[in-house]
Design brief:
This protein is of the alpha/beta class and 378 residues long. The chain folds into three domains: 108 residues, 3-Layer(aba) Sandwich (Rossmann fold); 63 residues; 181 residues, Rossmann fold. It contains twelve helices and ten strands. The strands form two sheets. A six-stranded mixed β-sheet has the order 6-7-5-8-9-10, sandwiched between helices. Strands 2-1-3-4 form a four-stranded parallel β-sheet, with helices on both faces.
């Protein structure tokens, strides 16, 4: 399949630090590569405030359109959340040239669509899409109304708006009803596990930190792993046996893994990202319930990432939004094989409260120490 040619635009304030601007653009590049696009031009624009009509301003927009025509660009991606009228106004200027215009959420939704395997994931993406695209569709209906209605008349476009709203409202209710069935099934499974005495451990982390790799390394589950963002959208659950010398965990309890051991359930789900839009968090809330109700959280961190600390904070912000603040956490610093020297002492000091463990899922290093920490925490 041919790669679509893409222009990337990021609009930042004049107060944005160069390092932060660089990071924002790097992440947008990673998202675009994950989607499968070929980046031909990257543009950073500094503005005090976004342009009301087109976000990037008329002069810059004309410049971008000229470049897009010259470079035979198929998609313009703006690394911000645009208002419906802003993206609508840009689309009107480029639609005859065959160029698509996406904002940051459009791009993430396209990646989600590419990676969705289960019916539930597809439903969640559709729900997020309706919530994101709905206002834009209303804007299109309003434009039809203004064109068809004339002065002092009630045009067919106005009826179109109402029809669109009703259609999307009915579809949203139907999707939420189907998603709730999956959520109820998961709730019943959790209740059964609680009754049997199973402990649950949830793996969270920034996307591409190595969550699925950790699940595979600990349980041999065989979850899909790829060096790209959002490779995993669905919740995967696997059993992990923890050897223990503690006499309290010996015996014939159904949740025990035999003499001197404990079986726990390990779950892995969608990765987080900088400025993860609220509607996406809400759409995936049912699959994130495993994290909300876990007895222990393993926060997987790419220790070789130059933006490691910022990404730790962003994952914690999402957990706070999910109201996961009191659950015990272990920080699992992954990919130690990517560094010649890992600053263990400094990391242990900074994140002492989260019992840091250093591992390489790729080389199966540090996993026994992690198992011990999990057993001790539980």
């Amino acid at each position: 399949m041919d790669q679509p040619r893409v222009i990337l635009i990021d609009v930042i304030s004049s107060q944005t630090k160069p390092e932060e601007a660089k990071r924002r653009l790097l992440e947008l590049e990673s998202l675009t590569h994950t989607y499968g696009g070929m980046i031909v031009v990257k543009i950073i624009q500094k503005r005090v405030t976004p342009d009301y009509k087109t976000y990037i301003g008329p002069g810059k927009l004309e410049e971008v359109i000229a470049i897009a025509e010259q470079e035979q660009v198929e998609i313009i991606i703006i690394n911000n959340l645009l208002k419906p009228h802003q993206i609508f106004n840009i689309e009107r200027m480029v639609e005859r040239k065959g160029i698509k215009v996406w904002d940051r959420i459009d791009l993430i939704l396209k990646i989600f669509q590419k990676h969705a395997d289960t019916t539930e994931a597809k439903l969640q993406i559709r729900l997020a899409g309706i919530r994101h695209m709905g206002p834009r569709i209303y804007r299109m209906g309003l434009e039809l109304s203004q064109q068809a209605g004339g002065i002092g008349t009630r045009g067919s476009g106005e009826t179109n708006i109402e029809q669109m709203k009703r259609h999307l409202a009915v579809e949203e209710r139907a999707i939420k009803k189907q998603i709730s069935k999956y959520a109820n099934t998961r709730s019943l499974h959790r209740a059964r596990r609680d009754k049997m005495g199973f402990k649950t451990v949830s793996i969270v982390g920034y996307t591409n930190a190595g969550k699925s790799s950790l699940l595979n390394a600990l349980t041999k589950k065989g979850a899909y792993v790829a060096d790209e963002l959002f490779a995993t959208l669905d919740t995967r659950v696997a059993k992990l046996w923890l050897p223990s010398n503690d006499p309290l965990v010996k015996g014939g309890h159904p949740a025990k893994g035999g003499i001197g051991g404990l079986s726990v359930l390990l779950s892995d789900t969608i990765g987080f990202i900088q400025d993860l839009p609220p509607q996406l968090i809400q759409a995936f809330r049912s699959t994130l319930e495993e994290t909300v109700h876990a007895d222990l959280i393993l926060h997987v961190i790419d220790v070789s990432d130059q933006y490691m600390d910022e990404k730790i904070n962003e994952v914690e912000e999402v957990l706070a939004e999910l109201e996961v603040t009191d659950t015990k956490k272990i920080y699992v610093f992954n990919k130690i094989d990517n560094l010649k020297r890992v600053p263990r002492t400094a990391i242990k000091k900074k994140y002492k409260a989260f019992k840091p463990v250093f591992v390489s899922c790729k080389k199966s290093e540090g996993l026994e120490e992690l198992k011990k920490q999990i057993a001790d925490s539980l």
